[in-house]
Write a structure and sequence with these properties.
Helices cover about 45% and strands about 15% of the residues. It is built from 16 helices and 15 strands. The protein has a four-stranded parallel sheet with strand order 4-3-9-10, with helices on both faces. A four-stranded antiparallel sheet has the order 5-6-7-8. The protein has a three-stranded mixed sheet with strand order 12-11-13. Strand 1 and strand 2 form a beta hairpin.
């Protein structure tokens, strides 16, 4: 298995620290608002990675943190007139709902920053003792970036060139403009915790260093996150953690690609910013997941009506192939009687840095073979269907009943299924009487409601595509 390592900027053979076991940490959400499409990308990307590693036989410990104390949280709670705890609990519940709808499995551990204050304080004190950090006279504690010789290696940046960069926070209490905060002194009335340097709260970067090492040890296998976290967040995590422990922090760094909307950067100022729940009001959750899986995890994704339509068509091909076959849900593992090249090709694709586009091409080949054998070799078709479901399951796909997906995936239908079938029957009668104007009118009437008819030699089937708006 090869994984692209952001730190070395190349694919490398993946060898876990402990044979057969993988320890992985992914930066999670700052819970002051609902999760957006960028969060969905990271959730789904590392869910696929976790599922596949487990399918390959690895014992995976997946940790994804929650940042539940932060400047944005403080501001939003004040704006809403609610307590910090009420806001964060509400947003965490919403996050769990969103991930469940996208078939994202929960992480094994979900540490919260406020539950690890003692660990954070201990790591800061260690950094001070080692002269990598200092307490300023305003009650803040800062990290000495210049003291860490390897700073900038992950993001391929030179600290000298960063000194005058726009993203460097200017603060008269810092020894150097590059230094970043580890502990923030509390303003009057703010949420705070006692510390040797006064009442305050942790800086964002130190939270992940403390939580990851507490959950997974001083050195672990994989650290992941979104593309916007590479600098400064992950760069700062490395500096803090390695200075504190004296050991390498992470062996493999992985970063998911960005989400673009109609080929533009997603932002509130452009009016193209969508939360997960807003998207799922109009689109089947598996269609959205398929769109996120169909691109390589490192590649950018374009979210647009035509890309969603293509995602739905792709899933329809799979579910149409599976339709009408009764599968034994207790069957696990590779299926006997199926050409082993499907499994071999799928594994080769996913072993190559989780190449989901290539893996999906194997599923399309499997679906074509399944369609070909449905009539002539029912037993073989059943085996192929099991294999299609098994491999799709490694990507978190094809977990619905085919009829449920093809007929709208449980969405609120504008007509009852009996009414739809009645209109289809009326259309068939009209066609037999060569009253094509009436038949076309029925088809167009249903299409306007999002009910799309599909004619074949076996008869007429339908799918529901919820209209926009």
């Amino acid at each position: 298995m090869q994984i692209y390592n952001t730190l070395t900027r190349r694919k490398e053979p993946f060898t876990p620290i402990e044979p057969g076991k993988v320890r992985m940490y992914v930066c999670g959400m700052t819970v002051y608002d609902f999760c957006h499409l960028g969060h969905a990308r990271v959730m789904v990307a590392f869910d696929v990675i976790t599922r596949y590693l487990r399918a390959r036989g690895f014992d995976v410990t997946y940790v994804r943190n929650v940042t539940d104390i932060d400047d944005k949280i403080l501001r939003r709670a004040e704006e809403n007139g609610e307590s910090i705890n009420a806001l964060t609990e509400r947003m965490i519940d919403a996050m769990h709902e969103d991930q469940a709808r996208l078939s994202v499995l929960p992480p094994d551990r979900e540490p919260r920053a406020t539950q690890h204050i003692d660990d954070i304080l201990a790591m800061i004190q260690t950094l001070i003792d080692k002269n990598f950090a200092y307490a300023a006279d305003n009650g803040d504690v800062y990290y000495r970036v210049r003291r860490f010789e390897r700073y900038g290696r992950l993001s391929n940046r030179d600290p000298d060139e960063m000194r005058a960069g726009a993203r460097i926070e200017v603060d008269e209490h810092k020894e150097d403009p590059l230094d970043f905060v580890l502990w923030k002194a509390a303003k009057p009335g703010e949420a705070s915790w006692p510390s040797p340097w006064g009442e305050g709260r942790p800086g964002w970067h130190i939270e992940c260093s403390a939580m990851s090492t507490c959950c997974l040890g001083e050195t672990f296998d994989i650290h992941g996150g979104g593309p916007d976290l590479l600098f400064p967040h992950h760069e700062n995590e490395i500096a803090q953690s390695e200075a504190a422990t004296g050991h390498a922090y992470v062996n493999t760094w992985m970063h998911a690609g960005a989400v673009r909307v109609n080929h533009e950067k997603m932002s509130k100022s452009l009016g193209n910013f969508f939360t997960i729940r807003e998207v799922l009001e109009h689109h089947d959750a598996e269609v959205v997941r398929y769109l996120l899986v169909a691109s390589h995890y490192r590649s950018p994704i374009n979210y647009a009506p035509d890309s969603l339509a293509e995602a739905r068509k792709s899933l329809e091909r799979f579910y149409t192939a599976l339709e009408g076959l009764v599968l034994d849900e207790t069957v696990e593992g590779p299926i006997t009687g199926v050409d082993s090249s499907f499994d071999a090709r799928f594994t080769a694709a996913m072993d190559d840095d989780f190449n989901t586009p290539e893996a999906l091409s194997v599923l399309f080949d499997l679906a074509r073979e399944l369609n070909r054998t449905k009539q002539e070799a029912p037993d073989k078709a059943l085996a192929l269907a099991h294999e299609l479901r098994r491999l799709g399951g490694a990507l978190g796909l094809l977990e619905q009943a085919p009829a449920s997906f093809l007929q709208g995936s449980g969405a609120a239908l504008p007509l009852s299924e009996a009414e739809i079938e009645g209109r289809i029957s009326e259309r068939a009668t009209a066609k037999q009487a060569k009253d094509f104007a009436t038949a076309d009118a029925i088809r167009d009437e249903l299409a306007a409601l999002g009910i799309i008819l599909k004619d074949s030699r076996e008869g007429t089937t339908w799918v529901f595509e919820k209209p926009e708006g």
